[in-house]
Amino acid sequence: MGGKKRPTISQLEKRARREQAAKQQEQRAKPKMSMTAEGKLSEGSLEAIYREVSGRPYVTPFLLHSEFGIKISEAKRVLRRLEEQGLIKLVGGNRRVSIYVPVAA
Question: Within 13 Å, how many C-alpha atoms sit on residue 96's CB side?
Fold first, then answer.
């Protein structure tokens, strides 16, 4: 008998505010990645990635994967491309994981 107690109005308002804040933070945190016709990231996406990377002490493919939602293999390609442009530098790692740092301007 009885059943589960229904939440109060203030509890519902708090829950709605938390959900809305989480949704806004998620939208703000991840810039939209766009692909070219060949399936590679566009120049605008590479610039957005570099802006995020330049403020970090180090960068790995997994960090890009988790931050931007791109595949690990694509993250490795992006990091190699940024290294070729001289924006980041390979400092360590092994066959599976490479560790990069931003080049000081």
Answer: 1
The burial of 41, by beta-carbon neighbours within 10 Å (0-12 exposed, 13-18 middle, 19 or more buried), is given as: buried
User: Terminal CA-to-CA distance of the chain, rounded, Å?
Assistant: 70
* 3-state secondary structure at position 73: helix
Q: Give the domain extent around 87.
A: 42-105
What is the structure's pLDDT at 45?
78
What is the count of structural domains for the chain? 1
Q: Which amino acid is at 67?
A: E
Instruction: Flag whether 99 is in a domain.
Output: yes
Look at residue 16 and tell me whether its pLDDT is greater than 90.
yes
Listed in sequence order, the residues at least 6 apart from 100 whose beta carbon sits closer than 8 Å to its beta carbon are 53, 58, 59, 60, 79, 82, 83, 88, 89, 90, 91
42 vs 58, residue with greater confidence: 58
Interhelix angle 61-68/43-54, nearest 10 degrees? 110
Residue 88 lies in a domain: yes
